[in-house]
Design brief:
alpha/beta; Rossmann fold; Dihydrodipicolinate Reductase, domain 2; 2 domains; 9-stranded mixed sheet; 13 helices; binds 6-O-phosphono-beta-D-glucopyranose
Length: about 500
């Protein structure tokens, strides 16, 4: 498959981390697979005074460092790919400089015959989104009489409902909604898209996928690293803004949505929006009982010292920013009335793992309740987003021999067993989709605002009421113990996942 429409890609923030870690490796992969359109070029725009030659060298280094391509042939290919890349030093905060950008774009369009289609990727700090959008509009770069213009922005889309609204309004002053592509890289993950496929391409799940058969749903996104060198950003954000407002609420929407009428950007995004609109708002009291926040403290994991969050570079010494958050939420609609959704995310937990666990209700009459193993067993469907991507179904099976001893067994599928083992990186998929004008996996403005409406009351309450506890948890553990009490039901607890999908509830290597 090849992108049909010729185009120019302009990356703002070209000398930054996102460009070298994610964008260039993804673009290179797209190039290697011959997916780029016939007439295509990249213009990197940044503050640093590189020449195009120097920038091309950096592109090759980034590709070598951040992809698994070490062979000589790949080096040649990386150099050939870098030949498509140009660089323009520009202070985007100076409105006077945009005419230079306009001239450069015109020159590249003529040289590469890209036909006027242009994709602007803002890989910059969010403080520049409005400035750049303005600069593009004031120089009439946001539209073209005979071609399309699109803009991609990265999260964070604001830091509160108010700032997100302001950003949205501003962008929509410069571009139309259908020109704006807001990246949530979780939606670009193959396994996240598979949530929809699992649900809507299999007759067996849909009849069970509701309050009659599902007891609760659990979503975990755990990381086994601290904030590393992002303390400055993270201390102002925290886990709720960094992970829940976007990635985790999008995951909840995909798990809970109604079937879309068709696979199209608006049909799907209308359904995910309805889920967000149905999430019961958190009231003051619930914020204490249904939301648990934590912060990692110093510890030693496998003989290695891990800093306390407050000792990380860029972090305030008496910071009350959460590095862990667990929530219990309800979706007040016909399908999900009364079914709790538990979601949690945190830095410095024991494993890097993201998964959805659907817990089914037990049988109405427990024939085998005399069996100790089955006492608390529920059927579980585990949709593993990463790593060891796959699906696992847990159910009870008779132990061979006399009597009716029942034990839990796993039925599992691992992506690694597919003949086509290569799971494309999220950025590859998202870039290609945007080049083709497919907005399905990008978050729409209304959905972002709706997600802020869910987390804003929590953030406000935390700010207003410093007595709401923030629990310390030693780095390398599963977060504050108080989060375990969120889960209702006798002997119910979170699943404690391991690196491998099918190992849990027992010793495992993390
Ligand atoms: C980013 C967050 O959006 O997602 C990071 O800002 C987090 O703090 C990252 O580490 C996690 O993404 P992934 O794909 O590694 O699960």
């Amino acid at each position: 498959m090849k992108v049909k429409e010729d185009q120019l890609l302009v990356i703002f923030g070209a000398s930054g981390d996102l460009t070298s870690r994610k964008l260039m490796p993804a673009l290179f992969e797209i190039y290697r697979q011959h997916v780029l359109p016939s007439h295509f070029a990249i213009l990197g725009v940044g503050r640093k005074p590189y020449t195009t030659e120097k920038f091309r060298e950096k592109v090759v280094t980034a590709i070598t460092r951040h992809t698994s391509t070490h062979e000589n042939s790949d080096q040649h290919l990386a150099a050939a790919f870098a030949g498509l890349v140009h660089y323009l030093p520009l202070n985007t905060e100076n409105p006077e400089e945009y005419h230079v950008l306009a001239e450069k774009i015109q020159w590249l369009e003529d040289s590469y015959q890209t036909g006027g289609n242009c994709l602007f990727y803002l890989a910059t700090p969010p403080g520049l989104y409005e400035v750049i959008a303005n600069g593009l509009r004031n120089n009439e770069l946001q539209h073209h009489p005979k071609a399309w213009r699109r803009i991609i922005i990265e999260k964070p889309f604001g830091i509160s409902l108010k700032s997100a609204k302001a950003l949205n309004n501003h962008l929509l002053n410069c571009f139309n909604e259908d020109q704006v592509y807001r990246i949530d890289h979780y939606l670009g993950k193959e396994t996240v898209q598979n949530v929809m496929v699992t649900r809507f391409s299999n007759g067996i799940f849909e009849p069970l996928w509701n309050r009659n058969y599902i007891h609760h749903v659990e979503i975990t996104s755990a990381e086994n690293m601290g904030v590393e060198d992002r303390g400055g950003y993270y201390d102002k954000a925290g886990a709720l803004r960094d992970m829940v407002q976007n990635h985790l609420l999008q995951l909840v929407s995909l798990v809970a949505m109604e079937p879309p009428t068709q696979i199209s950007a608006d049909a799907i995004r209308n359904e995910t929006l309805k889920v967000l609109q149905s999430i019961r708002p958190f009231t003051g009291e619930e914020i204490t009982s249904h939301v648990i926040r934590g912060q990692y403290t110093a510890s030693t994991v496998r003989g290695v010292h891990c800093n306390a969050y407050r000792d990380e570079p860029g972090v305030n010494r008496d910071s009350r920013t959460e590095t862990y958050v667990a929530l219990k939420l309800y979706i007040d609609n016909w399908r999900w009335g009364g079914v709790p959704f538990y979601i949690r995310t945190g830095k410095y937990l024991p494993a890097k793992v993201t998964e959805v666990v659907v817990h089914f209700k037990p049988t109405p009459h427990r024939l085998f309740c005399f069996n100790e193993n089955v006492q608390n067993a529920d059927n579980q469907l585990v949709i593993r987003i990463q790593p060891d991507e796959g699906i696992l179904l847990k159910f009870g099976m008779k132990v061979p021999g006399a009597g009716f001893q029942v034990q839990d067994v796993n039925m599992d599928f691992h992506y690694a067993d597919l003949a086509q083992k290569n799971i494309p990186e999220a950025y590859q998929r998202l870039l290609v989709d945007c080049m083709q004008g497919d907005a399905t996996l990008f978050t729409r403005g209304d959905s972002i605002l709706q997600a802020w409406k869910i987390v804003d009351p929590i953030l406000n309450e935390w700010e207003k009421n410093p007595d709401i506890p923030i629990y310390g948890y030693p780095a390398g553990t599963w977060g504050p113990i108080q989060a375990d009490n969120l889960i209702d039901g006798p002997n119910m607890t979170w699943r404690f996942p391991c690196k491998n999908l099918s190992d849990d509830g027992k010793y495992c290597e993390l």
